[in-house]
UniProtKB/TrEMBL annotation:
<keyword id="KW-0813">Transport</keyword>
<dbReference type="GO" id="GO:0004784">
    <property type="term" value="F:superoxide dismutase activity"/>
</dbReference>
<dbReference type="GO" id="GO:0020037">
    <property type="term" value="F:heme binding"/>
</dbReference>
<dbReference type="GO" id="GO:0019825">
    <property type="term" value="F:oxygen binding"/>
</dbReference>
<dbReference type="InterPro" id="IPR012292">
    <property type="entry name" value="Globin/Proto"/>
</dbReference>
<keyword id="KW-0408">Iron</keyword>
<feature type="domain" description="Globin">
    <location>
        <begin position="5"/>
        <end position="150"/>
    </location>
</feature>
<keyword id="KW-0479">Metal-binding</keyword>
<dbReference type="GO" id="GO:0005344">
    <property type="term" value="F:oxygen carrier activity"/>
</dbReference>
<keyword id="KW-0349">Heme</keyword>
<dbReference type="InterPro" id="IPR009050">
    <property type="entry name" value="Globin-like_sf"/>
</dbReference>
<dbReference type="GO" id="GO:0005506">
    <property type="term" value="F:iron ion binding"/>
</dbReference>
<comment type="similarity">
    <text>Belongs to the globin family.</text>
</comment>
<dbReference type="InterPro" id="IPR000971">
    <property type="entry name" value="Globin"/>
</dbReference>
<dbReference type="InterPro" id="IPR013314">
    <property type="entry name" value="Globin_lamprey/hagfish"/>
</dbReference>
<protein>
    <recommendedName>
        <fullName>superoxide dismutase</fullName>
        <ecNumber>1.15.1.1</ecNumber>
    </recommendedName>
</protein>
<comment type="function">
    <text>Involved in oxygen transport from the lung to the various peripheral tissues.</text>
</comment>
Amino acid sequence: SSTMSLSEAEVQSARGAWEKIYVDAEDNGTTVLVRMFTQHPDTKSYFTHFKGMDSAEEMKQSDQVRGHGKKVFSAINNMVQHLDNSEAFLGIVTPLGKKHATQLKIDPKNFRIICDIILQLMEEKFGGDCKASFEKVTNEICTHLNNIYKEEGW
């Protein structure tokens, strides 16, 4: 049975919204991370190689920041491709959540922070409709990640 609360129409409009921002995955992924690190400096502590970087400009140039920005966007892209197949969706979200919970020990609130910054960027670049059609997806992702964290004893 499907655990997803998105209708077929919602899935299609979410994919359309995501495609717009995913076209520039590395740049947009980098922008999202740099905003997170500057607005929430405590999040930098998880990335030992970003710790010494204070200026947004410096972070934007960093290969590590750019690489991780692209990685985050690729992971979300995988999820977006499987929004209509909960088994495949969970097959992507579950190992990702487990790794962040157990190995990396990332506070789950950071997923919400990243999602909110992505929504903010969508709104700035493509308007409120774009943001609105992707909001349910971010809620879905964060809900599933939080559930995995609970299972891992957070």
